[in-house]
Design a protein that fits this description.
- Helices cover 70% and strands 0% of the residues.
- The chain is mostly helical and 467 residues long.
- The chain folds into two domains: 163 residues, no CATH class; 211 residues, no CATH class.
- The longest helix has 34 residues.
- It is globular and about 70 Å long.
- It starts with a helix and ends in a 7-residue tail after the last helix.
Length: 467
Amino acid sequence: MTFQLSTLFFIGITIIAFYIALPGLKPGILAAVSLFFCLLIDRSAFVVLLSVTFFTYIIARVLGSLKGDKVRKVVLCVSVFLLASILTLWKYMSGPEDSAIKIAIPVGLSFYTFQAISYIADVYKRKYTAEKNIVKYILYMSWFPKLVSGPIERAETFLPQLDRLSDARLFDGQRIIKSLSYIIWGLFLKLMIADRAGIIVDGIFMKHDQYGKVMLITGSLLYTIQIYCDFAGYTDIMVGISYLFGIDLTQNFRTPYFAQNITEFWRSWHISLSSFLRDYVYIPLGGNRKGLIRKYINTMIVFFICGMWHGRGLKFIVWGLLHGIYSVLAGMLKDTKLSFALRGAIGSVITFCCVSFAWIFFRAESLGMAIRYILAVFTSVPINQSFEYEIIKTGSTPLQMTILLIGIAVVFVADLAAYRRRTLVPEMLINTGEIRRNMGFLIFTVAFLIFGIYGNEDVKSFIYMNF
């Protein structure tokens, strides 16, 4: 998904259609718009989305009607196996990560497949009754703001909201303020920081052998910032858009880079994915109930799956296993004299550095490139060129770098304040005084309108659309 005038037009038409429709037609309007959106961006995704939707709708109805526990368990296991197999085969059928042959993954497949698995698992456990209204279920699976990059919604939190769509009012001041707070902050993160950082990051990673260790470390740190601002920015924008229709999406990020240890990091980074892996993989495997060794094995399995979910290739598996190792080490240090490394400012710095190091594998084109990049950090000879010149080599400019650093500083201060208050930046905007809030809206809007990056299609696309 990219943001252009056509995107605004699409959302505007949807708002008009939604608010002039009779109450009983509102879910159908949003479901039709969401399917049309999917068809526009990816025809193969449209076919796969409908197939997965109807398959899981039927399976859930069957699970709801069956009485025997053994039969129900067989139906669940077969269904989950089929869904997981479709996702895995699609991601890995193209062969090695360095292969020239790439088979495109349907947009959003990773997200709505996990969502479908959570749905039928909850119906099996009788946490949620199988949805009878096919239109509402289609909307649950296809709601366009979350289609391409999540969050992975649970049926128990999303579907009941569809019964209250008629309560949404077009001219609801508080809801509009909340929507604007998320959209404006998300656009600031995306256009002001993520896309600007992306230019430098791409330049360094594509020609890493031409840069010294300072620039290589800079590239790694900037990618750490880029992927956060890109993905969190996407989530905030989509949360804001959903509020316009009276739908409340799951919060996916809670200032993760201030986390004091890796466990806290994963409780605040891609929350819908980490909670899915906890509830539908880690706990069913036994969690921490079967001894310490089994706990660590379960942890490594979870992060192995997490790596595979993100994409084809060994680089993602290594990235996932690194986080698994971090988590196991944190568990080992928890009750020792070294536990100081898991809390406070020291813990936050260590966690940030560990996460940033792992992102190198995530960003690199292949595992081999990631290894060469890391080796170059330690072995490269300092290049006798100014920092400004090396920034220009990446395709950026010293002025753009200055603007980027100012933007990063703003996010740092805002996220630190939100972390200390145990809230989110948009929520701070919502709850501040009217004058301060309006000034914040004005400053952030002017910032991304004047200093935002607009142009190159690759720069504007969201990173997590690839997963």
